[in-house]
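Aim 2, interim progress: modelling of the zinc ion-bound target.
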Amino acid sequence: MQPTFRAAVARRTGLKPATVTGIVNDLLAQQILSEAPAAIPSGNGELGARWGRPPLMLQVNADAKRIVAIDLEPDRIRVAVTDLLANVLNYQEQAIDRFSEPDVIIKTMLKLAGRAMEDVDRAQLQGVGVSLPGLVDQKAGVLISSTNLPRWRDVPIRDILHKALGVSVQVERSIHLAAIYEKWSDPNHAHRTTLMLTLRTGVGISIMHHGHLLTGRRGFAGEIGHTVVDLNGKPCECGGKGCLETFVSAPAIVARATEMIHQGKCQALVAAMRGKSDLRPELIYKLAKRGDRDCAQIVKEIGKYLGIAIGNMINLFAPDEVVICGSIDMVEALFLQAVREQVEKSALPRSREGLTIRLAREKDRLPLLGAAVLVAEEMFELPSLQHAREVTEDKATVSASQA
Ligand SMILES: [Zn+2]
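Predicted structure of the complex, ligand included:
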């Protein structure tokens, strides 16, 4: 959300300038937007002389509202208070057991959200945005199922949180929110095809084409974790066999390390584990970064399997860039090298021409920040704007079907 001109808003939304003026004035009156003279680059005398008085630019008044963002991951809950530009003002997290009953996990969510809301003026609180793993019915606010949260089936999480917290709540899938945040923070997405791969407890992918998110029927697209990479592979939590997740999910990484420990390998990991109750992938990444060969091998294997899946996606979508989000940033160089090597083998040269593969700037906080953006964006979807958009889209559909 960069400062922008009124004319640019009209151009981007396809609204008439008079409609934009009406909406903008409304947001200015609410102090959600402010207007300030545009900065003319110093030394650009010619431009300054041509413009005379600098034109006014619109910008979002970040402090006008507060948002509570919640990221439910199968192994932890993250909660942040943010401003309207998704800047984090306050952050807390707590580990959870993914095999717990939903009401136990929801209780922890409510405790953390309640604590976050204590410091926020109620009148200033715009709402709560929630990132969920697995399949989500966004309109109904229901977490349909999540392979990594096996006890969650059709949980009406939005209504439960709304009732308990007394504020408006919005929910969305974590993989889509990761893409929503990237889109919000980088205007260049309007001209690109981007694959956003989210590697956390599970793995999912979002496809963005020229600023549009491809979510598939009912928002179910993106289950790359359950594409088969080994026909004779291990059973997957989804009920299938040899899925990508049986190689790269957090439980799979831990299982691989445990297997290596039983073979007498990963001695540094055994030593580092002393006094710790559970083994987490982060510990393996940490040791790999310090140069432990066995842990580095595990990281390379994850990179290789992801590289196979990413290579397939590159052949299908020929993207401009692949962005990976996850806690893997601890071993960025090692991991990306393994992914890139495999992509060179798996993807066709033409499909990967000029392609960038990189880690997301916000690492594994992307879905959390995307949950804040979800709420912030809703503020700018005023009824009049929504209506105008629908009209524009209808017109576009008509002209497309007539063509
Ligand atoms: Zn599976």
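The domain at 64-179+366-378 is CATH 3.30.420.40 (Nucleotidyltransferase; domain 5). The two ends are 34 Å apart (CA to CA).
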